[in-house]
Amino acid sequence: MKITVITGSSHKKGTSALLADKFIEGAKESGHEVLRFDAAFEDVKPCLACEYCVSHEGECVRKDAMNEWYDKLIDSDMVVFVTPLYYYTMSAQIKAVIDRFHANNAKLAGNKKAMLFATSYGADDWTMEGLEKTYEGILRFLNWTDVGKLFATGCPVREVLEQTDFPNQAYELGKSIQ
Ligand SMILES: Cc1cc2nc3c(=O)[nH]c(=O)nc-3n(C[C@H](O)[C@H](O)[C@H](O)COP(=O)(O)O)c2cc1C
Predict the structure, then answer these.
(1) pLDDT tens digit at each of 178 positions of the chain
(2) Choice from 7, 83, 85 to test ligand 1 binding pocket (greatest atom count within 8 A of CB)
(3) Residue 174 in contact with ligand 1 by CB distance below 6 A
(4) Which residue range forms the structural domain that includes residue 22?
(5) Which atom of ligand 1 is nearest to the CA of 88?
(6) Which residues contact 37 (CB under 8 A, 6 or more apart)?
(7) How many domains does the chain have?
């Protein structure tokens, strides 16, 4: 299976990056091909909503890292979103990538699996509600199938996350992909 992992933190060695690392380790061990797109370290401009793409077969007027990633995303069997929780939803860095799906919604829609990984400081039972709803809406719109979510709540920094079972759970989720 071709899997694209999109991360959304500017902490190269942060909490969500560790979940991404462990997921990728497991997925590769199970023989999957994994591409990683670290959105915070790529040039991804916000969607202009100019609708140029509508009359130009999905070509986006913005010339940046997304241009070469459209085909890779369209070609993926699975897309994995990995984000720190920012104000109860995904980070702006990863949201910018998703907004840019707009140019190729039709080509991206259908027959893909998806997963969501998130980390947060808070650990209330409602901490991930907003993010989860957003993710579910995106999948419903794109007709993608959720195959797993991992919410590492109560983990403000990597040192705390390392003391939990969440990294192992990320690895196991990667390993379990069929
Ligand atoms: C701008 C910003 C907004 C945040 N918003 C939330 C939040 O709404 N709820 C929460 O529990 N933690 C929040 N946090 C804490 C981060 O989600 C948490 O520290 C996370 O582990 C950081 O992940 P990273 O190391 O991968 O960047 C926020 C942190 C930042 C910098």
Answers:
(1) 999 999 999 999 999 999 999 999 999 999 999 999 999 999 999 999 999 999 999 999 999 999 999 999 999 999 999 999 999 999 999 999 999 999 999 999 999 999 999 999 999 999 999 999 999 999 999 999 999 999 999 999 999 999 999 999 999 999 999 8
(2) 85
(3) no
(4) 2-175
(5) 8
(6) 4, 5, 6, 7, 69, 97
(7) 1
